[in-house]
Amino acid sequence: MRSFLHEIDIPPSWLVLHVGAAWVLSLVSPPMFGSLARALGSVLVVVGALVMGAAVAQMTQARTTVIPRRDPQALVTSGVFALSRNPIYLADAVILTGAILWLDAVLALPLVFSFVWLIQTRFIRDEEIRLTEAFGPEFDLWAARTRRWLGRK
């Protein structure tokens, strides 16, 4: 049982759980956002999927893992990784935000913050330790100029 739980403890599972919780909250949430937010939500979901696809393609091209808790084979710092050290997790958060807007679930907005906190504590910190161990000063230089979530320093 523990092995099964360990195998499903991955960011996509947490995203699905958060989107599911947003859907449940949408059933009791007062309508607030309207049709404009529904359109914006759709756009955010598509943008998130495109960013995620670009990041996965870059990591695949560099022949390194996209699976959390596995040792990286390469440090990818260009493309979407020049704007975010964690573009896949950023894409997940954007997709969740888009889903909440699309569902018109104002009560679900705090889920974005809980998702970011969970991903940061369960995955990102460990990944950054692995990257530091594997790439040392190269990772430190990239981390010094690229923010964890979005933007250049």
Annotation keywords:
153 residues; mainly alpha; 67% helix; 0% strand
Account of the protein in words:
The model has no long low-confidence stretch (mean pLDDT 93). Helix 3 runs antiparallel to helix 4 (87-103). The chain is built from 6 helices and no strands. It has one domain (2-145). The protein has 153 residues and is mainly α. The radius of gyration is 17 Å and the shape is elongated.
Catalogue the unreliable spans.
Answer: none
First-residue to last-residue Cα separation: 43 Å
* Multimer state: single chain
Helix content: 55-70%
- Per DSSP, what share of the residues sits in E-state strands of 2 or more residues? under 5%
Radius of gyration: 17 Å
Number of helices: 6
Domain module count:
1
Secondary-structure element series: HHHHHH
What overall geometry do the principal axes of the alpha carbons give? elongated
State the total count of DSSP E strands. Answer: 0
Most strands sheet: none
* Overall pLDDT score: 93
Q: Helices and strands: which structural class? A: mainly alpha
Helices and strands, with pairings:
Elements: H1 2-8, H2 11-26, H3 34-61, H4 87-103, H5 110-135, H6 137-145
Helix pairs in contact: 2-4, 2-5, 3-4, 4-5, 5-6
Outline of this structure?
This protein has six helices and no strands.
